[in-house]
Amino acid sequence: MTDSEYLEKTLTDGASGGLKKSKKKQKRENAWRPEGPRDPFAMLDSLPEKEQQEIQKALHLFSLGNSLPKTLQQAKKHTYRFWDTQPVPKMGDHITTHGPIDEVDANIRNEPYLLPQGFSWDTLDLSNPSVLRELGHLLNENYTEEDDNTIRFDFSPEYLLWALQPPDWRLQWHLGVRVDTNKKLVGFIAAVPAEVRIYEMKKRLVQIKFLCVHKKLRLKRMTPVLIRELTRRVNQQGLYQAVYTAGIVLPTPISSCSQWHRPLNPRKLMEVNYPGLKQNMNLQRALKFNRLPEVTKINGLRPMNKEDASGIQSLLEKNLCKFHLSPHLSLQEVKHWFLPKENVNDTYVVEADDGTLTDMVSFYTISSRVLNHPVHTDLRAACLLCVVGNTTGVAELMQDTLVLAKSKGFDIFCALDVMDSIGFLDNLKFTISDKSVHYYLYNWKCPLISPDKVGLVLPN
């Protein structure tokens, strides 16, 4: 039974209350119905929002059996029909060499790949406020792997522009899919240019962001076409490699990291039943356990300004070269990714007495909506982007960062166990979650990288 068939059965059963009607009454009702099959998705849209959420939750549970694996053990038993055709390492390969998997193809396809009937490609012009709002709506409603109908992303227009328009971004790499009949945006994938250091080699490539297909269309097999078409457009610009992350296991991760979080507002997190909180704590104990100082301790700690960009670039260049996977940032990229923007990102530096910058820390903002709660409507998470602790030490710098994040109204602080984070996660009372982030390279092979040798965080 497909999702569509299951949805129609669920809606029909729900509407009838599960009671069988007499043949005579059923025939009388059918006489007034239009000929042809009913559209189950139109039926879904006609229901109240709360009932829609319950049915979507049932659909999600119904389709779990066909979902992509989330652990390496599950992945070994999974058949990847699409990825087996792509230039990526196969599951179980032991790689000791470096370099491209496929050589450059001079014959790049000129025509776009075909979409399922009834859908068309659209290059999204995010300078148009209405298009930007459409993208935000698509991602906010559909950019989750699991939907428990309690918390959903709420990407702001400012955040999307920050994530999708770094220096040298290209319009044709913001790829959308629309329904022919009503022009509704139902799919999206993006690439942004970057230079990344992979072991000893610097490589110009793209970062893949926001792969999203409308939940009602997951069975249309749009994801492979989105990836193929974006690959074609990127290849046209002379780039043949990509880096991306996912919460599911694909062929084949070069590194796998764990997500950690640190409550800043335990009361609110407990009231909204935030996933992953310690269940053995009552509110009073949670408040005491997660208490933070009222003020910061590090002398010279202040927000970044424009004049700090070259100093931060030098700090990053010296620090990131010790990792096997890390960004190589131009001065303009440093300004774009780290200069503070309200409700998008925050960066703090430590300035010595002689005016030089010795340390820095940066985090970005992920906002979410809280659904069906009598009190709370939103949730704000601070996500660590980068930390360099030369003089003060990473743990001390991160403690002050938690204090600053809490003072700015964040509810939780999230970090991956990458870079130098192993030096502060346990000491600062971060808790490991059951979610992982897997790193991938497209058309590039290299030996596996341990999380502490990953120096790259991709905001999504």
Please give a structural write-up:
This protein is of the alpha+beta class. It has 3 domains: 3-65, no CATH class; 70-245, Aminopeptidase (3-Layer(aba) Sandwich); 256-439 and 447-453, Aminopeptidase (3-Layer(aba) Sandwich). 28% of the residues lie in helices and 24% in strands. Strands 1, 2, 3, 4, 5, 6, 7, 8, 9, 10, 11, 12, 13 and 14 form a 14-stranded mixed β-sheet that branches. Strand 11 (357-370) and strand 12 form a beta hairpin.
Report the strand count. 14
Shape: globular
Q: State Rg.
A: 24 Å
Query: How many DSSP H or I helices?
Result: 13
Query: What fraction, in percent, of the residue positions are helical?
Result: 25-40%
Which whole number gives the mean pLDDT?
A: 87
Structural descriptors:
Aminopeptidase; 13 helices; 24% strand; NMT_C; 14 strands; 14-stranded mixed β-sheet; 3 domains; phosphoprotein; EC 2.3.1.97; 460 residues; disordered N terminus
Please give the structural blueprint:
Elements: H1 3-16, H2 23-30, H3 40-45, H4 49-62, H5 72-75, E1 119-123, H6 129-142, E2 151-153, H7 157-164, E3 174-179, E4 185-198, E5 201-213, H8 222-235, E6 242-246, E7 255-263, H9 266-271, H10 283-289, E8 301-303, H11 309-320, E9 325-327, H12 331-338, E10 345-351, E11 357-370, E12 378-389, H13 394-407, E13 412-416, E14 431-442
Parallel strand pairs: 5-6, 12-13
Antiparallel strand pairs: 1-3, 2-11, 3-4, 4-5, 4-9, 6-14, 7-13, 7-14, 8-10, 10-11, 11-12
Helix pairs in contact: 11-12
Quick rundown:
The chain is 28% helix and 24% strand. With 460 residues, the chain is α+β, with helices and mostly antiparallel strands.
